[in-house]
Amino acid sequence: GESVGLHLPTLSVQEGDNSIINCAYSNSASDYFIWYKQESGKGPQFIIDIRSNMDKRQGQRVTVLLNKTVKHLSLQIAATQPGDSAVYFCAEFLLTGRRALTFGSGTRLQVQP
Amino acid sequence: DTAVSQTPKYLVTQMGNDKSIKCEQNLGHDTMYWYKQDSKKFLKIMFSYNNKELIINETVPNRFSPKSPDKAHLNLHINSLELGDSAVYFCASSHGPGANVLTFGAGSRLTVL
To answer: Which of B22, B58, B78, B83 has its CA 20 to 30 A from that of B111?
Structure first.
């Protein structure tokens, strides 16, 4: 179930529209940037990642864009479906040192039928 | 077949009690993690084990003690529970410590009264 009083940024889109979820990351030395999806009552699920030497990567209905100049990451979902409704997290990963995912704050995507 | 399973899913207990959460993965992964998700959905790593050895130990009160009897299991024991320990605890696993793709369990919601 959901907790009362959450203040997650929320993006509300119509079914069939494209969605763009944005993330500002903090560590310019990160080697990978990753998107995870968390549906209600479930754990986060890997969607797609992008290496720091790339600026775009496409998956099935999803595209991740990386702008290292402004430390910005975005996830584009084409033809958004009700099953896409979830909280989306961006995460950073360093191949050296600690080697643990650092998650950003999430964005809730609500798909209106 | 559940890849990463944690028990119990819900845990309600009084302050001062001691409780454990168990986690098992059947993916053959070498690395396992505990993450804590607070009421604002913020996910933070607590511990990571690689092949039964502790490799990440974030600044977590020593009331929290992880134990990995083998590489497929990672349990979390919490002593002297406090109100602030209320959260959802996620277990996760990955092929190795250098992986950014984690498979998460469904979470264990701990409520301390």
So the answer is: B58
